[in-house]
Specification:
By secondary structure, the chain is an all-alpha fold. It folds into 2 domains: 80 residues, DksA, coiled-coil domain (Four Helix Bundle (Hemerythrin (Met), subunit A), Up-down Bundle), CATH 1.20.120.910; 40 residues, no CATH class. It is 74% helix and 0% strand. The protein is elongated. The two termini are 33 Å apart. The protein binds zinc ion. Zinc ion (ZN) binds next to helix 4.
Length: 120
């Protein structure tokens, strides 16, 4: 991967990171707003449902934020775009679809079938 590609992915990852951080900020504001009207039990149930959903989304977001930060670090370290299992290049097309990918498509496919067998 040349310097131009690395710059591209760095910008892409930074942009995704900013969007996620912004969304996380909005979610906190929504959570605070909805806590004000909890007199009605139905409202309360809806609120709990929202809150659980929100926590699940935020959990997923924070994991993605962590992955993006790791990928940005990989760019700094010069290991970005290299499969952690086999050491082959992951490939620009796959990285464009999923910039935080750590495995080439071959290893990813093998991992996924392994996960199915083990039942993870
Ligand atoms: Zn691989």
């Amino acid at each position: 991967m040349d310097a131009k590609d690395l710059e591209f992915f760095k910008a892409l990852l930074n942009q995704q990171l900013q969007e996620l951080l912004q969304q996380a900020g909005n979610a906190v504001v929504r959570l605070r707003d909805s806590e004000e009207s909890l007199a009605d039990p139905l409202d309360r149930a809806a609120h709990e449902y929202d809150q659980n959903n929100l926590l699940r989304i935020r959990d997923r977001e924070s994991r993605l934020i962590k992955k993006i930060r790791e990928s940005l670090q990989d760019i700094e370290d010069g290991t970005f775009g290299v499969c952690v299992m086999c050491g082959e290049e992951i490939g620009i097309a796959r990285l464009k679809a999923r910039p935080v990918a750590k495995h080439c498509i071959r290893c990813k496919t093998r991992l996924e079938s392994l996960e199915r067998v083990v039942g993870v």
